[in-house]
Specification:
Layout: H1 2-26, E1 43-50, E2 55-60, H2 61-71, H3 74-82, E3 88-95, H4 96-101, H5 110-118, E4 123-132, E5 144-151, H6 152-164, E6 168-169, E7 172-173, E8 175-178, E9 184-193, H7 199-209, H8 222-233
Antiparallel strand pairs: 1-2, 1-5, 2-3, 3-4, 4-9, 6-7, 8-9
Pfam family, one: DUF2459
Organism: Methylobacterium aquaticum
InterPro entries: CHP02117 (IPR011727)
């Protein structure tokens, strides 16, 4: 029994050290020239919306449209025009099959989840865009909302990365059916969904493009991403 206890302790320490090392080795630095905004500099506030298993970004539509127009990104501009009646857009990325079939945590199907996470080579992805005209906390009841003040240059970098995520056909974004709630649509997306590339990693990638430091291993789960932003970027939910 004593040997078994010692072996379990060694295994636990080894796993802990391995995870810490993996987290450190995969951590991405931020860009202090982009984030945080300089004192007195105009900023754009975006919000991370973190639910039980999924997260998305809530972006001001007018600022996103302006960034798309400035960059000449016709596809992204077309998306913002599609939702021009809404002051904000909630945008998420995920597995094409699972995202459509599991709108809430209560509807979670573990068979679909495991298939999405462990299919060799990953699975096709979609973007979910929702026009939001309510308070951020009402977008996903019970979700955690983390406001993030980005520099204007950082927001333009985020918008550029977001634009590249839309699959294009003849220069236009490709609609993939009605969304899950409110005025919303699915769009075909670039990238392959897998255990190493989930929605929370995708959000972290956009925020990293905006200059925030992120830790992909920690960001696998929504609450891990929230903790990462608090730890490395100084961002906290109100």
């Amino acid at each position: 029994m004593r040997r078994l206890g010692r072996g379990a302790a060694i295994l636990a320490v080894t796993l802990t050290v391995t995870l810490l090392a993996a987290g450190w080795l995969t951590a991405r630095p931020g860009d202090p020239g982009l984030y945080p905004p300089a004192p007195g500099e105009a900023a754009v506030t975006v919000r991370l919306v973190a639910g039980a298993w999924h997260s998305g970004l809530l972006l001001p539509r007018d600022a996103l449209a302006a960034a798309a127009a400035e960059a000449g990104d016709g596809a992204l501009l077309e998306v913002t025009e599609r939702f021009r009646a809404s002051p904000a857009l909630e945008i998420g990325w995920g597995d094409a099959g699972f995202y459509r079939a599991v709108p809430t945590f209560q509807a979670l199907d573990w068979r679909l989840a495991l298939k999405a996470l462990f299919t060799p080579g990953g699975r096709s992805a979609v973007l979910h865009v929702v026009g939001v005209a309510v308070e951020p906390g009402d977008v996903v009841p019970g979700a955690g909302i983390v406001p993030l003040r980005l520099s204007q240059a950082g927001f333009r970098r985020l918008a550029a990365a977001l634009g590249r995520a839309f699959t294009r056909r003849d220069g236009h974004p490709v609609e993939a059916g009605p969304g899950l709630y409110g005025p919303s649509l699915f769009y075909e997306a670039e990238g392959r969904f897998s255990l190493l590339a989930v929605c929370n990693h995708w959000n972290a990638g956009l925020l990293n493009a905006a200059g925030l430091p992120v830790t992909p291993l920690l960001d696998t789960l929504p609450q891990g991403l929230v903790l990462d932003l608090a730890w490395r970027a100084g961002a906290h939910a109100p």
